[in-house]
Amino acid sequence: MPSLSHKRGTRAQIDAAASANALRTGEVYLITDEARLTVGTSTNAHEPAAKQSDAGGGGADPWVWTTLAADVANSTTTLAAVTGLSFTAAANTSYLVQLFGALQSAATTTGATLAVDIPSGSIVGRTTINSSATAMLTTEQIADNATTGITTGVRAANTNVPVEAWFRIDIGATGGTIQLQFRSEIAGSAVTMKAGLTTMGYRTI
Fold first, then answer.
1. What's the pLDDT tens digit per position in 132-170?
2. Is the pTM of this model over 0.90?
3. Are 123 and 145 a contacting pair, CB within 8 Å?
4. What is the three-class DSSP state of 29?
5. Distance separating the N- and C-terminal Cα atoms of the chain
6. What are the boundaries of each domain within the chain?
7. Which of 1.10.287, 3.30.750, 2.60.120, 2.160.20 would CATH assign to domain 64-204?
8. Distances (CA, A) of 41 to 18, 23, 28, 45, 201
């Protein structure tokens, strides 16, 4: 059987080549860390192809899901990474990101919020947490690595509390890591994202 070879590299390497204007329009490349082909659309951009497991692949789930493997705690009001909940984004690509899970707070008066750190582009999103038996509080994200508004507490201390978030992300000319982050609303009072119960998913749009 005849063989056909393509230039190949990781997503990061191909994105780096795009940043250096080193791609060729119409040339096919293999993204080795995703087992996916991509086509150069200009010297500085490429368009990855969908796989059968992506959207439209015989009814397959277009989302990629990752479950938090270990608890992650933060007792500061500074956003910190939820280690293990991240993915590599392509330049000039749009994504939907969702999170469903549980967190715990050290006190009922300690709220929490989530945000996403992106390599470039724009973002809009919202996080909702059960603040009592009958109410929910919401914060929003309209800029990279930042949130607006605060949550004032949780339904119960040291108990799993549902948390849900969604983000629409439009990556600009620089691809890279999209990292989920979180913070406590009270300095010195810890909030913990719970392993096994917390899952983040993403898909291209």
1. 888 899 999 999 989 999 899 999 999 999 999 999 999
2. no
3. no
4. strand
5. 37
6. 7-48, 64-204
7. 2.60.120
8. 10, 8, 10, 6, 27
